[in-house]
């Protein structure tokens, strides 16, 4: 069995535990596919653990995509500069909040990319959250010794040479899907309860109309353009209704966003595959 590769970012709802289930379905849906399109790439676990000639990797979070582009462009320089922030002196609330303020005030793409990685590893639970003004507001994480993911950064930068990174809406991504492609969508999930929503990963969030529109676009891509689309989400009455035109499978997955071990229960994950 091939060794799995971890993403260099901590990420709410990351797909590391499910990559075998996801890649298996994508390959079976279109064995001739040359390109994997991900409208919601997140930390990139599916990208890192799949084998396509080319990738179109998109996210609405501009800071995330800028980080990927900088790492793709100048990996040695980027990793060297990022490493300098991972020292004991910076693993302190005063340092973290000063860097967070610097990030929120900065318009320099490279500086923001370095600080984004620092905050991801030093901030609370690896969350990525912005307020309505677009201000990053995740508190300090209180980790004993934050891990600097050097090997993971180098692996990502090498594989990123096969990728095109974009920061567009999911609707725009569907308009640009090439021939011989498969699409994997990992949208912000429908919340299981009113308090369990982590959709503020970019200003504006992702509402129920977006969930339904994404399903419509998946149907069109699969049934009109013969491009298979796989969507993952929570298994709820609502998602089953939204994905009624898809082939549905349920997988149990352990949730890791809760800071308490007792809150990390197994949750049913829905895999909705659209293909003609």
TrEMBL record:
EC number: 2.1.1.72
Cross-referenced Pfam families: MethyltransfD12
GO terms (BP aspect): DNA restriction-modification system; methylation; mismatch repair
Coiled coil: none
InterPro entries referenced in this protein's UniProt entry, alphabetically: Ade_MeTrfase_dom_2, DNA_methylase_N6_adenine_CS, M_m6A_EcoRV, MeTrfase_D12, SAM-dependent_MTases_sf
Annotated catalysed reactions: a 2'-deoxyadenosine in DNA + S-adenosyl-L-methionine = an N(6)-methyl-2'-deoxyadenosine in DNA + S-adenosyl-L-homocysteine + H(+)
Enzyme class of the recorded protein, top EC level: transferase
Gene3D superfamilies per record: Adenine-specific Methyltransferase, Domain 2, Vaccinia Virus protein VP39
Keyword annotations: Methyltransferase, S-adenosyl-L-methionine, Transferase
GO MF term (any one): S-adenosyl-L-methionine binding
Residue sites binding S-adenosyl-L-methionine per the record: 11, 15, 59, 186
Entry superkingdom: Bacteria
Family: Belongs to the N(4)/N(6)-methyltransferase family.
The protein's name: Site-specific DNA-methyltransferase (adenine-specific)
Organism of this sequence: Pseudoalteromonas rubra
């Amino acid at each position: 069995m091939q060794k799995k590769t971890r993403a260099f970012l901590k990420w709410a709802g990351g797909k590391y535990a499910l990559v075998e289930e996801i890649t298996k379905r994508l390959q079976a849906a279109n064995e001739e596919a040359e390109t994997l399109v991900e409208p919601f790439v997140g930390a990139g676990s599916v990208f890192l653990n799949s084998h396509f000639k080319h990738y179109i990797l998109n996210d609405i979070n501009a800071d995330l995509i800028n980080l990927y582009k900088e790492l793709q462009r100048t990996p040695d320089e980027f990793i060297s500069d990022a490493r300098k922030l991972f020292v004991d002196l910076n693993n302190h609330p005063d340092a973290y909040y000063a860097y967070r303020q610097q990030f929120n005030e900065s318009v320099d793409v490279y500086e923001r990319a370095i600080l984004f990685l620092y905050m991801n590893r030093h901030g609370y639970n690896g969350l990525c959250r912005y307020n309505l003004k677009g201000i990053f507001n995740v508190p300090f994480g209180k980790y004993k010794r934050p891990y600097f993911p050097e090997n993971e950064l180098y692996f990502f930068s090498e594989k990123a040479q096969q990728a095109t990174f974009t920061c567009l809406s999911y609707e725009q991504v569907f308009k640009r899907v090439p021939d011989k492609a498969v699409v994997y969508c990992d949208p912000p999930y429908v919340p299981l309860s009113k308090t369990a929503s982590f959709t503020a990963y970019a200003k504006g969030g992702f509402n129920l109309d977006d969930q339904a529109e994404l399903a419509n676009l998946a149907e069109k891509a699969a049934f009109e353009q013969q491009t298979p689309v796989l969507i993952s989400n929570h298994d709820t009455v609502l998602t089953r209704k939204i994905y009624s035109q898809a082939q549905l499978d349920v997988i149990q997955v352990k949730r890791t966003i809760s800071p308490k071990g007792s809150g990390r229960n197994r949750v049913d994950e829905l895999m909705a595959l659209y293909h003609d």
